[in-house]
Amino acid sequence: MFFLPLALPLLLIFFVIPFLMAYLVLSVGSILGFSPFMTLLIYMLILIGSAVNIPIFKLEKKETVAMPERDVFGFKFPDQLFRESKYITVSLNLGGAIIPTLLSFYLLLTIPIEEIYATMVATLIVVFVSKKGARLVEGAGISMPMIIPPLTAVLASMFSLILFNLPFINLAKISFFSGVLGVLIGADILNLNKIKKLRVSMISIGGAGTFDGIFLTGVFSVIFSALFI
């Protein structure tokens, strides 16, 4: 009985949140035109794939290392500085980068050709905002506020459709594409040169720190866009 106040919130976390997330994903899948089965399959692949990082290349960084003063047979050698090469392995996260990107391009193929131009404009806007909003976090890599990318994706998509005098019927698909690709390019790829400042041996594009920024950007972009369809 003593542990009940603590156990109840834990039960809510472990049982309610997964069901809530599943409902959210099913709603998004329905808006994008996927069946419930296909939506859950994609969601499970993304969750499982989030644990898989595929190395693609290594970045070399130079660090200044100090060798302390040494005493060799009574002779003192002063402190010495030398440059040491270290490497950061850059990986692609299967669930956080590869699958959402493939899904985005699939959705791009389902919209009319004239809306692709609007999609590119919206994506460039999200790339710019993501590049400016991304921050280096020691131990986590590149991170950015969760709410900014999906809101930017929806607003940029609406602006682009209005600019090209197009209807909002595919707003959700355009928002998903511009959100996912915009964050992937703007927050991760364009900031790769900055990760040399971090004391890390591996960085995952779409992985820790930006998994929520890429995958959930797509999810919430669709949800926000549904308010305007």
Automatic annotation (TrEMBL):
Residue stretches spanning the membrane: 37-57, 87-109, 115-134, 146-168, 174-193, 205-228
Keyword Membrane among UniProt keywords: yes
Superkingdom, natural source: Archaea
UniProt keyword terms in alphabetical order: Membrane, Transmembrane, Transmembrane helix
Protein name from the UniProt record: Membrane protein
Species this chain originates from: Methanohalarchaeum thermophilum
